[in-house]
Each structure stands twice: as structure tokens, then as C-alpha cells.
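Collaborator request, handled under Task 6.
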Amino acid sequence: MQKHPVNLQYPPDKLTSPIEDRLGAAIPGSRGRARNSQIAALESKHSPVPRRAAKSKKAAREAEELVSKATLKLRLLKRLKCTLKYETLAWQAGAKLVAGVDEVGRGSLFGPVVAAAVILDPAYRIRGLRDSKLLDRERREKLAPRIREHSLAWAIAAVDVSTIDQINIYWASKRAMEDAVAKLTSRPDHLLIDALRINFDCVQTPIIHGDALSASIAAASIIAKVERDAMVSAWDPVYPEYGLASNKGYSTPKHLRILREKGPTPLHRLSFAPVWTSSAPQEVLEFMLEQEAAAVSDEQLEVISQPL
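C-alpha cells returned to the collaborator:
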């Protein structure tokens, strides 16, 4: 006797699918085409293939959620266009010296926060100005000397680690920007600043994502970035384990791992969570100990020299 194949996807005593049970068996001929297509559609809906597709879509959504905020911000900044729009509005309003102001190193775990102020020359256009985060190192280092050479005025200021830990990074960043503006050889009559106002007596225009929209702010971010990178890289031979020449003090996986293993250096920002939650602090530099010993010796000499 000939055996009929059994579809093991359904119970052995039932050779029709649950879909056919609901809609009736497939009907041959043109009169049953609508019913047959309906059965096929429902069976495809309940088949494992769509479930696998749903799982892959879910995995894709989860992967998108894992994208860091920094990556999302960079994607946004790349879509923005850096122009002289805000400078032109200030010039048309009567301003003569419009300064762009920006800081870099605010999110770093190591070293100072650095700010710059730049007054661009309206008669000279520097091509390629853009948010320093969107430019590679080679491009920034080519633009920085051009900015310094062709600007009407520029200045750079830094606030050290101890001050950052004392007054927090927000106020330290503002202080660095205020110091940079105060150091300009020409006093500006209008400031374009990335998203905030500072303590300086003149008209100010805070611009969200200003370093990606304003050429003056972009110029300030570039020279500040080049300056700070050089400052941090100079410490790489002193602390080679931390990879400062490559990460510039930011929280890369390697930097965080070394912090957990060796603890922070004297130039790490102890007020930042990844630093103060790391293990025991590293020993201070030898020259710092020598300076401290010299200071103590001076105090002892003063005490000895005082008359009884």
C-alpha cells in the first residue's frame, strides 16, 4: 500500500494546516483563486521566515539604540553648513570687530580646558573652516597657522586641572573663554559664542552648535584644538601607558582600563567620575616632590632665622 507523506508541522492525524481549517481547504480553479491566495497569505504570515525577519529588525533597532550620543551628534554636525551668516548679521547691525569664541577639552579626563577667540578679517576668506571635531589632525594643523596669520586678532587661554576640580568644568570653560577674549589685542564689539554667554561687556550671540554654523567660532575651535592637543601630547612621554598622544585625555576604552589598573596621574581631573572611581592614585612626579621639599626647607630656614 502506498504511503502518503505526512506534514510533521501539524499533528499526524491532521493533514491540513490550521489556516485551511479556518478558511476551508484550497479550492481548485478560478473560483477558488481568491480563497487560495488568502490561505497562502495567512500561512506565509505564520511561517518561520517572517519571524526571522522580525528578529533581525529588532536586532537592528537595538543596534541603533546602542549608538553613542557622540556619534549621533557628529552625524548632526556633518549636516550643518558653516558660513558667515551670523558674522554678516552682526556687521550689518553696526559691529566692526566680531569675535568667535569656543573651548575644547571640556569632556576630557586629563589636562586643561583651552579656549580661543578669533576676529576674522571680513576682507579675507579662509576656506575650509569647520567644526574642529569634523576635521582630521592634518587639516586642522594646516588651517591653524592660516587663521593666526590672516585674522585681525586671535588669543588662546587655558584653565588648569586644579581649577577645574575646584570650580567644575562648566565654570572653568567660561573662565577660559573670558580670558581668551580679554587677551585679544583688539577689543571686540560683538561676540559669537557656542551656546552660552560669558562675563564680557558687549553684545553677545549664543549659537547652538555654533562651531558648526559660524566661521568665526569654527576658527576659534580649530586653533584651540591644535593648541590643546599639543599641550596634552607633550605629557605622553611622561605617562606613556595612558596613550595621551592618541586619545588626548578622552575616555577611550584603553584610557579607562589603564585608569582602573594604575589610577589617575596628578594631571587627571579628580572631579570627573571615571577618574575618582578608579583605583589608588599614581605617585606624584619627582619634580613635584623636589619642589615641595624645597618649599619646606625654605620655611624651616625662615623659622630658624627668626630671633627668639
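The cover message to the collaborator said: "Residues 286-305 form the longest helix (20 residues). The first strand starts at residue 98 and ends at 104. Please let us know whether this matches your experimental observations."
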